[in-house]
């Protein structure tokens, strides 16, 4: 199914989102629950929505937030999902009919045009996570080989070192292919969410049941096929950098009279558009994507309560991308940086024809091997939760857009 063809997705009642939000709020270490507001007007509700968005973005800037790690990126998507559900509640609230009248109809339509573009980003990010899984396999081989000795005091043998270097060399080639090839493997393996064939073995947590697009087809069958039946979601000419610019470029700032006329809903739409861009920008920065690029500019008026945390978050990600040791990285994700560092250090220390290794080099290699083990475990624990959040982002955008379009298509006063 093409990612931007949301009209083929069945509408889902608003109540169906309750289960997702309950699961999000179950972990108080990741997100904060907010008391249910009791606004006296639509304007109060819109203001409360903006304050909650500001709070969620500010929490992501905490000193211990570990910017752009797997755990932090999962929290970022938690914040987005909460914001989108609150936004839905505003649009479907007592003033829902305002969404079909000027000026709100134009602003809502603009937001959903941008949101549809984010669906392709979700697919590209999902493929990027799959690529990181492939990297982890090579990393795990090197870690297992270097940690396999039953005697921790015994020096590493030649066979161990050569096998580990082979795995790390393969890993380096894969990462260079992605970095220098404008997406590399990612650009050739994009797929939509879910399984394309009931005979294909589930990937990851195996959720999602999207239809195949007519262009997807079957790329292989049987357990020995590396490329299972995939649904192609973006073309090879697709660009994450251009998509970011389309999502955030020219975001329409509501005029004061529009905010007043819509009971504050115009400012809520603008808020949700800015949050969508910041989340998309962070995902492209962190995860390997086809034609990554962070040139998209972000600037918002300072009179919104969320303006400062949103701008600070954008600036910090840009600063991270400009660091000398991150400029040529496949992604700014903390764990990707750890993969690059561990691989580089181990390749350097084991670049020798002397076996067994000298005592100092052997100690360093075994210490680096333990770092590899930790990185592998971090990836194992963090990739699946993050992918689930990307899936939920995809599905919730589709459901929200479908329901709003259904709502706007009804005659006034119809149930």
Detailed description of the structure:
This protein folds into 2 domains: 41-190 and 237-409; 193-232, no CATH class. With 415 residues, the chain is mainly alpha-helical. The radius of gyration is 24 Å and the shape is elongated. It has 12 helices and no strands. Helix content is 58%, strand content 0%. α3 (70-91) packs antiparallel against α9 and α3 packs parallel to α12.
Number of domain modules: 2
Total DSSP E strands = 0
State the order of secondary-structure elements, H for helix, E for strand.
Answer: HHHHHHHHHHHH
First-residue to last-residue Cα separation: 31 Å
Structure in a nutshell:
Pfam families: ROH1-like. The protein is mostly helical and 415 residues long.
Give a topology summary:
Blueprint: H1 18-25, H2 42-59, H3 70-91, H4 104-146, H5 158-180, H6 184-188, H7 240-248, H8 256-261, H9 265-286, H10 307-322, H11 334-349, H12 359-409
Helix pairs in contact: 2-3, 2-9, 3-9, 3-12, 4-5, 4-7, 4-9, 4-12, 5-11, 7-9, 9-10, 11-12
Protein name: R3H domain-containing protein
Organism: Setaria italica (Foxtail millet)
InterPro entries: ROH1-like
């Amino acid at each position: 199914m093409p990612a931007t063809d949301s009209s083929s997705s069945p509408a889902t009642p608003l109540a169906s989102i309750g289960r997702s939000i309950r699961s999000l709020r179950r972990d108080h270490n990741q997100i904060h629950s907010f008391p249910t507001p009791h606004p006296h007007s639509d304007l109060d509700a819109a203001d409360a929505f903006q304050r909650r968005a500001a709070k969620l973005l500010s929490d992501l800037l905490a000193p211990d937030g570990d910017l752009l790690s797997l755990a932090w990126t999962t929290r970022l998507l938690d914040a987005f999902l909460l914001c989108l559900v609150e936004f839905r509640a505003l649009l479907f609230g007592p003033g829902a009919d305002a969404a079909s009248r000027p000026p709100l109809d134009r602003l809502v339509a603009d937001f959903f045009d941008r949101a549809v573009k984010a669906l392709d980003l979700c697919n590209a990010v999902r493929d990027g996570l799959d690529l990181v899984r492939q990297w982890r396999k090579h990393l795990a081989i090197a870690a297992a080989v270097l940690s396999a000795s039953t005697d921790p005091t015994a020096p590493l043998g030649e066979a161990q070192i050569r096998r580990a270097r082979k795995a790390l060399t393969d890993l380096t080639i894969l990462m260079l292919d992605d970095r220098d090839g404008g997406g590399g493997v990612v650009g050739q393996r994009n797929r939509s969410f879910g399984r394309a064939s009931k005979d294909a073995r589930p990937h990851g947590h195996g959720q999602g049941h999207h239809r195949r697009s007519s262009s997807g087809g079957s790329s292989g069958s049987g357990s020995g096929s590396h490329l299972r039946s995939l649904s192609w979601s973006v073309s090879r000419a697709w660009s994450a950098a251009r998509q970011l610019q389309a999502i955030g470029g020219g975001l329409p700032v509501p005029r004061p009279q529009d905010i007043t006329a819509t009971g504050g809903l115009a400012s809520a739409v603008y808020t949700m558009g800015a949050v969508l861009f910041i989340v998309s920008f962070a995902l492209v920065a962190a995860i390997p994507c086809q034609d990554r690029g962070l040139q998209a500019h972000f600037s918002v008026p300072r009179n919104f309560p969320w303006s400062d945390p949103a701008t600070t978050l954008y600036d910090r990600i840009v600063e991270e991308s400009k660091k000398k040791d991150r400029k040529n990285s496949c992604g700014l994700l903390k764990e990707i940086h750890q993969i690059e560092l561990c691989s580089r250090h181990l390749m350097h220390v084991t670049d020798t024809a002397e076996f067994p290794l000298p005592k100092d080099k052997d100690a360093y290699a075994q210490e680096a091997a333990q770092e590899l083990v930790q990185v592998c475990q971090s990836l194992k624990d963090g990739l699946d939760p993050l992918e689930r959040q990307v899936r939920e982002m995809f599905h919730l955008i589709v459901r929200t857009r479908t329901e709003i379009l259904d709502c706007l298509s009804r005659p006034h006063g119809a149930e």
